[in-house]
Structures are given as structure tokens and as C-alpha cells.
Amino acid sequence: MKKITSRRLFIRNVSMASLGAVYLSSSSKLSAFTLNENSFAGYNPYAEYKTDLRVSELIGKHITVKGKIFCKNKLEPIEGAKIEVWHLSPNSFKYRHQAKLIANKQGEYSFITDFPNKESGKTPRIYFKISKGDTTYTTELLVNDFGSYITGEHWEKNQTLGDLLQPVKKQSNIQFNISI
């Protein structure tokens, strides 16, 4: 006895296979674009220029992050560098805390934000993208109740800062310098 499949069943199966192939190829292209565009999750190129990222001045813990942007070769402050920052919002797994800043004539920047939430198994962190001309650099600042820390990659790429390399946390204020 021969097994005969209906034409409708054949068309349905072919359609499902085609949709699956289209979905997989488009999602892999999308994830490849996201990873190549910026290696950190939550980056938003359309963030607003602002220095206060807090949702409310009254609720929760706040931290102030200040620092200088230096030229990697000369260790001189860089005026007009664009700094983009973002982090997970408190009690959420969404990146609603985002802003852009411009370094002043002395290369200084400053912003205040709510204490960031943490991804599972990671320390809370604030992501940075610094741009000046054709040069772009991304890094992250790790924070907790006891201090602030840098990653090994940040340490390697910012050695010219010397004593200015390590972030300094005093109560709710953090000094974080970056060289590009």
C-alpha cells in the first residue's frame, strides 16, 4: 500500500520550512549587525543630551560620575569629545538610563544617575562610548556598594593614564578617567 500525502499537506510543510529559513537568516543578520555595531547591549545612538539620568530625585540610590577624557598619546585633555553612557535601569532589565554628554575645554564630563541594576551573574555596570573625530572607544565601569572597578581590557588600553587610571569612589561620587 502506498502512502499518499495530500497536496495541501505538502504546501503547508514547504511553507513552514521556507518561513523558518527566512526567520533564521534574518535573525542571524540582525544579531550580527547588533554585535558589530557595538559590543555592549543596550546601546542607543538616539539618546538625549543630558547630565541627569535619574528617574526620580527622591527614590533609590544615586551616583555621580565625573572624569576627564585624555589623549592617549600626549596625556592632554580632549575638548569636545562625545561621551555616551547607558546602563540597566534599577529593578528592571531594560536600558532606560541613557544619555550623551560633551567634554568641556578641560576634557571634563559629569553626570548623575540612579544606581544601575545588574545582569545575572555580573556586577552592576555603566557602559561608555567615547568619540572624537574618527576615533571611537567603548568601555565599562563596574560599581557596587563598596567601590568602583575597571575591566582588564580598560586597564590594558588606558595604561598611559598612570595614577589617573583607577576609578576612585568616595561615597556616591566616582572619578573615572578615560584615554582615547
TrEMBL record:
SUPFAM superfamilies named in the record: Aromatic compound dioxygenase
Signal sequence, renumbered to the chain: 1-32
Keyword Signal included in the entry's annotation: yes
Classification via Gene3D superfamilies: Aromatic compound dioxygenase
Keyword annotations: Signal
InterPro entries in UniProt: Intradiol_dOase_core
Entry protein name: Intradiol ring-cleavage dioxygenases domain-containing protein
Species of provenance: Gillisia lutea
Lineage, broadest ranks: Bacteria, Pseudomonadati, Bacteroidota, Flavobacteriia, Flavobacteriales
